Amino acid sequence: MSQVCDDLIAFLDEAASPFHAVSGLARRLEQAGFQHLQRLDETAFEPGAGYFVTANDSSIIAFRAGSARPEDGLRMIGAHTDSPNLSVKPHPVKTRSGVVQLGVDVYGGALLNPWFDRDLSLAGRVSFVDADGNLQSRLVDFRRPVAFIPSLAIHLDREANKNRSINPQTDILPILSGVSEGDSEGMDFSDLLAQQLRQQYEDCESARVLDFELSLYDCQGARRVGLDQAFLASARLDNLLSCHAGLMALLAADSAHWSLLVCNDHEEVGSASAVGAQGPMLMDVLDAIAGSAPISRRLREQSLMLSVDNAHAVHPNFADRHDDAHGPVLNRGPVVKINRNQRYATSGEGSALMRLLAERAGVPLQHFVVRTDLGCGSTIGPITAAETGIPTVDLGVPTLGMHSIRELAGCADVDHLSGLLTAFYNRVA
Ligand SMILES: [Zn+2]
Q1: Rounded to the nearest whole angstrom, what is the distance from the C-alpha of residue 234 to the centroid of ligand 1?
Q2: How many CA atoms lie within 13 A of 401 on its CB side?
Q3: Residue 85 Cα, ligand 1 centroid: separation in angstroms?
Q4: pLDDT by position in tens, the chain (length 429)
Q5: In the chain, helix, strand, coil percent, each to 5?
Q6: Which of 174, 71, 187, 67 is nearest to 119 (CA)?
Q7: What is the distance in A from the centroid of ligand 1 to the CA of 302?
Q8: CA of 354 to the centre of ligand 1 (A)
Q9: Which residues have beta carbons under 5 A from ligand 1 (an ion)?
């Protein structure tokens, strides 16, 4: 059994929100000797040493300083920390029909049907005033089933298997608790969060909660499935699988050249935010590494970025949704994603380099082009390429059920991707 896959499973279970993903990545980086920088200026980067910065607790950039000059180019890997989910509204509590429910928003392009009939929990970041009157934020994770969205029984909707649609405002409010008869007040959600803070942190005894960013998640953890255990079923494979593979590769990278990993929040909602791929975070780090702003044209030209995000595997029940010559299969290697209309950033030269790299790394490679009569998704690749001017290749592991509460990838592909990314950092090609 692959150690990389075991650590990925542990990471997926820990990373219930983008905040928890960044904290899990940061902890692994610190364990490997990477230094958490609070400021980018005034730091002299030692060749071979590792550094990282975070923003909003939900985006992170880590890099290993190389012996070569930054002008000789950086090898960069990008991924995203967020996944589609149900996010709790600011005034969420609704008391009706004998239960307390939570008002939720849909974050990103979530597939809504799979959220019904699951044991759900809550995780995210809570902001509060502490005993000294200071504003603070901490991560919370209830780590137990505290919510549930029951389906409407088929007896009450005979058309359910043919044409049931979901109204996100009215149909997917989770039940949080029961209400005792005569109790019209319901529940104070801030009190509930303060209680959770006290449970998790000794110094939060008198925390007064002011606000929060919380999302629901499925309590069922990541696990290998299939008679031959060939597949990995989990929430948030898109795109925590890639964040984790990038991290594994960075930890294994040699220090001849500079290697960098950027994991941004907000990809699922378009990346246009202070800490998203369209924000200034990556350019700030590149400026600091280059010691000049803007970075030199030579640094741009010599650098290369792999934007790693999951690719649609061909679904055996719906094989006609793929172009018949470009249908990636689970466990047959990472997928280079190509779209001539620049929904993906991969050029012919970039794709050719990936073929050579995969060949030399002994990793199988597949290719994806969307059907010409279907719209193409996008990812951080084209955005980062446009922001930095650095050539970029889009690739990722083939995945089924993308944006469902539980997605499916191939265990062998986890190792294939880590191998390919390590070879990329170490300039095997
Ligand atoms: Zn993605």
Answers
A1: 14
A2: 18
A3: 13
A4: 589 999 999 999 999 999 999 999 999 999 999 999 998 877 889 999 999 999 999 999 999 999 999 999 999 999 999 999 999 999 999 999 999 999 999 999 999 999 999 999 999 999 999 999 999 999 999 999 999 999 999 999 999 999 999 999 999 999 999 987 777 667 899 999 999 999 999 999 999 999 999 999 999 999 999 999 999 999 999 999 999 999 999 999 999 999 999 999 999 999 999 999 999 999 999 999 999 888 999 999 999 999 999 999 999 999 999 999 999 999 999 999 999 889 999 999 999 999 999 999 999 999 999 999 998 888 889 999 999 999 999 999 999 999 999 999 999 999 999 999 999 999 999
A5: 30, 25, 40
A6: 174
A7: 27
A8: 20
A9: 238-239, 309
Cβ contacts of 380 within 8 Å, gap of 6 or more: 78, 79, 80, 264, 267, 271, 277, 307, 309
Range list for CATH 3.40.630.10 in the chain? 3-83+235-425
In angstroms, what is the span from residue 39 Cα to ligand 1's centroid?
29
**Total-model pTM:** 0.96
Enter the tokens of residue 248: 């594994």
Token look-up 């997928």 returns: 335
Euclidean distance between CA atoms 357 and 13, whole angstroms: 31
* CATH 2.30.250.10 domain position(s) in the chain: 85-218
Question: What is the whole-number distance in angstroms between the Cα of residue 40 and the centre of ligand 1?
Answer: 28
Distance from the alpha carbon of residue 42 to the mean position of ligand 1, in angstroms: 35
Q: How far, in Å, from the CA of 94 to the mean position of ligand 1? A: 32
- Give the distance (Å) from ligand 1 centre to CA of residue 238: 5
Q: How far is the CA of 240 from the centre of ligand 1 (A)?
A: 9
Question: How many CB atoms are closer than 10 A to CB 289?
Answer: 21
Query: Do 403 and 84 contact (CB within 8 A), yes or no?
Result: yes
Tell me the CA–centroid distance for residue 128 and ligand 1, in Å: 31
> What is the Å distance from ligand 1's center to 29 Cα?
22
- The domain 85-218: what is its CATH number? 2.30.250.10
Select from 398, 429, 425 the least CA-distant residue to 65: 425
Query: What stretch of H or E contains 400?
Result: strand 398-400
Q: Which CATH number fits domain 3-83+235-425: 3.40.630.10, 3.60.15.10, 3.40.50.300, 3.30.70.920?
A: 3.40.630.10
